[in-house]
Structure formats: structure tokens, C-alpha cells
Amino acid sequence: MAGLKIGVVDQGVDENLCEADVLERFRDGLDVLTDAGADVVPVSIPLWADAWPIELAMLFHLAWAMAQSEGMGFGHLGEIDVARAHAFALSRRLEADEFPPFMKVWLLAGRWLHDHYFSTYFGKAQNLRRALRDEISAALRTCDLLVTPTTPHTAPALLDRPGTDAELLARGTTMSGNTAPLNLSGHPALAVPCGVDAAGLPVSMQIIAAHFADAMCFRAGSVVTSGSASVRSSPDRVTSSVHS
Fold this sequence. Notes:
Elements: E1 5-9, H1 20-35, E2 39-43, H2 51-68, H3 82-94, H4 101-117, H5 120-142, E3 145-149, H6 165-171, H7 180-185, E4 189-196, E5 202-208, H8 214-232, H9 235-243
Parallel strand pairs: 1-2, 1-3
Antiparallel strand pairs: 3-5, 4-5
């Protein structure tokens, strides 16, 4: 890592987004990179915090369009499984009540936005996607890599009963703040462990590189994982964990 500049995305480490334990373990990962010779600096990507709303606008429209085609999509040259498309068409008409809540919301919202707003929000989301991609690429012209926590919090406890639609929807929208931007931009990103929280649940660092610079992610990832493993196995860290 000697001589590399690594940018910490300001919007990805917001205390209103990430749990304290996640940020603490993430900073441990940054220390490992710094000890390996990297120069760690803050970087601002203004549209980063808007990535999940942008992605949702696209998902609504695309889910509805995919349903309209009975799961086949449009304009591709791949082989179509006609029997599967027929089965999907029957399921959508006869068993839609059994769809997961996310699928229901996407289909209803996509149809409503199409009918009432003529899919203009899909066009706006597409344009914002390009703008976000440009912002991330610009940051990677000043830094060799970017880093954030992968998810803002660790895994939630499993329910001991079937979840309500509201609970499932809430649980499904809290993890995407730092991963949605890369879903939209297509930059290579690697998630690696960088420690555990007070309950022993794993925390992960997300390492982001320029397009076609995947190998740079692997270089940094190997440093973080090996460094984090040595920290976790040190006597001081074990003692600290027992006391906590």
C-alpha cells in the first residue's frame, strides 16, 4: 500500500447512517491500511447519499417492465424459456398475494409512476445515475481507492415469528446506503472483514476502485483481512473483548 492514496467517502461514514461499533471497526481497518503505508484522506461525493432513492426509482420502473414481459425482458438475444414465462404469467395473475412485500411495492409503484408520470422519474433516475458515476470516477482520479463501511450496521437478530410486511420492508432498506452507489456506477467493489462489534457480529469494509482496476481492490483487501486477523488474535484485543 506504500504510496497509495485512499479516500474515505464522507457521506458513507456519517454517524446518522452508521452504528458506532461499525465506525470503530472501520477505523481499525483504516489503521491497518495506514500502517501498510497508505495515505488515507477524506473525500466528498455529494450524490452518494441519494443513491438508494435513485436506485429505487429505477427498480420500480424496471420491475414493472419485467412483469409486463412475464419475466422475459426486452430486446435481448438470449434463449427464452417459454414454459417458464407461461408459469410466471399464471403466478402473477393467480398468486400475486404470495409475492414478497418488496416485489408488491415495486410492481405497484412502477405501474403508478408509469401511468401518472409517464415514466419521467425513470429518465431522471437514469440521468442522476450517470452523474453519480461521474462523481465517483472523479474521486478516483484523485485517489487510488475509496473505502466505506460495507453496511451501516451488523446483521439484525432473526425474528422468532413470520415478519410483517412493514418489518420486512424496514429491514430491507437499511443496509443499502453504501452499496447502492456501486450498483448504479458499476465500479468494482470488494467487501472484506475488518473486525466484529460488541456482540461478536462481523463488520465489513468496502473497497472501491476505478473501472477495470479490480486488482487494486484485491491488493488492499488482502492487507485489511490479514491485518484485521492479527489485531483480533492479539492478547490485548482478546482481553478487551472479555471485559466488554
